[in-house]
Amino acid sequence: MSSGKQPLIIGLTGGIASGKTTVANLFHDHFGIDIVDADIIAREVVAPGSQGLKAITEHFGYDILTSQGHLNRAKLREKIFTNVTEKSWLNALLHPMIRDKMQKDLAKVTSPYALLVVPLLVENQLQSMTDRILVIDVSEETQITRTMQRDKVSREQVESILASQVSRDERLKYADDIIHTDVCDEVLPQVMQLHQQYLTLCC
Asked: What confidence tens digit (pLDDT) does each residue in 22-80 have?
């Protein structure tokens, strides 16, 4: 920013299919708020030609790649799903890369505040990167229904994913702000209200 003042960093998080992307896009589309998305960065650090993909290929072998030279995510998931050692190795490689890229992208922010979208913000203890935490909250039943429809997966698979994330109650303990997304028509008014609040905090 021209004043040299650091923008306010709002950590946006929530469970699977809670509506994180929808909410972040409302802030961006209506108010021009910059978004730094951990999921997008996680893909960038293992893109063809990246140091991340080079290290993964050296560790797991070239059969971890697709015929086009991209990371075969399904095969990687298979290798680390039941292997704690391999999962720890992968996290130790990628988490610092992702965090470093997030910090670099946040340094380029030009809006008064920015949204740092991190699905596993609480699980990976990244609260220190934020000034406030905005939790996108939704009922578990809505999460299950949305994920089954979106990803064409079974109820059991969704319940397994939910079990691997922190509970709804635990996540809410970290919330400075909450947006409820069970009713779609009620989301934008909540975004508008929080936008005004955040602008006040930026002053």
From this structure: 999 999 999 999 999 999 999 999 999 999 999 999 999 999 999 999 999 989 988 88
Query: Has residue 1 got a pLDDT over 50?
Result: no
Is 52 annotated as contributing to ligand binding? no
Distance CA 45, CA 93 (A): 10
CATH class as words, domain 1-33+111-203 = alpha beta
CA distance linking residue 85 with residue 73, whole number of Å: 18
| 21 is annotated as contributing to ligand binding | yes
Amino acid at 94: L
pLDDT of amino acid 3: 46
Which 3-state string (H, E, C) describes 155-183? HHHHHHHHHHCCCHHHHHCCCCEEEECCC
pTM score of the predicted model: 0.89
Distance between CA 120 and CA 145 in Å, rounded? 21
Residues, the chain, total? 203
Answer yes or no: is 19 a known binding residue: yes
Domain map (residue ranges) of the chain: 1-33+111-203, 40-110
Instruction: State the residue for tokens 């939910």.
Output: 162
Q: What is the pLDDT of residue 82?
A: 81
What is the Cα–Cα distance from 174 to 103, expressed in whole angstroms? 21
Q: Look at residue 65 and give its three-state secondary structure.
A: strand
